[in-house]
Every structure is written in C-alpha cells, then in structure tokens.
Design brief:
The chain is an alpha/beta fold. It is built from 6 helices and 10 strands, in the order βαββαβαβαβαβαβββ. The mean pLDDT is 94.
C-alpha cells in the first residue's frame, strides 16, 4: 500500500517538481499540501506569493490545502510548536510521510528529519543530491512554467525579480549562484504544470524591496526584492 504523504508546498519549482516525482512513484500517495503562511500579510513565508494563488494551485491539483499561519518573524520555538499542532490532525487522517523539495542542504535535511521523528513522521526528499541543471531541464521538459517572485539582493540584482524561470534566466545568473536557487538566491511561483488542467492566470503587481535581520550576529540587514502577483 502506498504511503499517505503530505507535500510541503511553497508553490515554487522545487516543491512542484518533487510532487511530480512522487506522483510517478507507486510507493507514495500525496494526499495533502501544507504551506507556511505569514498570517498578517496572507502570503507564503519568504516567497511573498498571495495565498489566493496557492489556493488556485491546490484547486488545480484537487488536493486539500492546509495553512500553517505564523506571526511576523516567529522564533523557532513558536514555529516548531505550531507545526506540531498543525500536523496532528493530518496524522490522525493517516499521513505517515512528509515530502520536501530540498536538493542538497544537509543541515536543513537533518533538521527536518529530527523534527518529524519527534512526531512519528518520516521525511521524503525526491530531488535529493540531483544536479541543479539536470532538475531544471526535467522541469522544463515536463512542461512546467514559473516566474521568479523573490531575489536576495546580496546575490542577484533587482532585474532578476519578475522574470520567467527559463534558460535565458539561468544563462544570466552570476558565477557562484546555484541555478535552482538552493542557497536562497531566488524563489519562484509555478503557474503551469503537467498536472494542472490549465495555467493559473495572474498579472504583475508592484515590485517592492524588504529588509530582514541578518542571521549572523553583528551582520547588516539583508535586502530582498519581491514581485507581487495579482490573481487575474
């Protein structure tokens, strides 16, 4: 029997491709989506995409869409406690596995595995340690389309924000930037996929700059550019 699996869903390319891989694997049955959302802003945490567009993706997939609604800048204790409370009813429905689109960040994978072990869930990483360019080629060949909605200005210029995630975008990336943005260089929103009945309609809104406290003590604030997407 296939494992009932929760997909941690950001709406971006890695989650979308990880779901694509799992849908072709008879060992897993993805039954639910889970997204961390900024409650005050009703947007996907760190991606800045409006919840309405994530809900449109979920409707196209025909899957339940659970939101972990977080306060602004929650500490890890709050995040972990609220996550456990959110997972509990999903486990009660038979969820045994939780899938992620992570590719090669060892510390992040270890953290996810530890946290899931505490509540009796098993982590799944369908894209783990596959080359970034190989993943992007698979993404494009399968018929996915995505737009870049957030860039870290320490690594990419403002002009990269709001561009289609295509081969030209990747060719223009500066040296040292991971093509999949696995180090937080950029985030994306998937508006078309082989498992969508039709593309998700949207229009470009305002592009804005936000700053966040640096993780390293004594470091300067980190700036990000966000491309707002408006449901059409």
């Amino acid at each position: 029997m296939a494992h009932r699996t929760l997909m941690n869903w950001s709406g971006g390319k890695d989650a979308a491709l990880a779901l694509h891989c799992l849908r072709q694997d008879p060992d897993y049955q993805v039954t639910d989506l889970l997204t961390s959302v900024s409650a005050p802003h009703q947007r996907v945490a760190m991606h800045g995409v409006r919840v309405e567009l994530l809900a449109a993706q979920a409707r196209h997939l025909g899957l339940p869409f659970t939101q972990l609604c977080l306060p602004d800048m929650p500490d890890m204790a709050i995040y972990e406690s609220w996550m456990r409370d959110t997972l509990a009813p999903l486990q009660a429905q038979g969820i045994t596995h939780a899938a992620f689109g992570d590719i090669f960040l060892e510390d992040l994978r270890a953290y996810r595995e530890r946290q899931l072990q505490l509540v009796g869930l098993q982590a799944v990483f369908p894209l783990w340690q596959r080359p970034s360019l190989e993943l992007l080629e698979e993404f494009w060949q399968a018929g996915f389309q995505a737009i870049v909605v957030c860039v870290n200005e320490q690594l990419l210029g403002e002009s990269f924000c709001g561009r289609l995630l295509d081969r030209d975008f990747v060719r223009d990336l500066p040296p040292g930037v991971d093509p999949c943005g696995e180090n937080g260089e950029y985030h994306s929103f998937v508006f078309d996929a082989p498992y969508f009945p039709e593309p998700i309609a949207f229009r470009l809104g305002e592009r804005v700059r936000r700053t966040y406290p640096a993780l390293a003590q004594g470091a300067e604030e980190v700036g990000f550019w966000f491309q707002d997407l408006l449901p059409a």
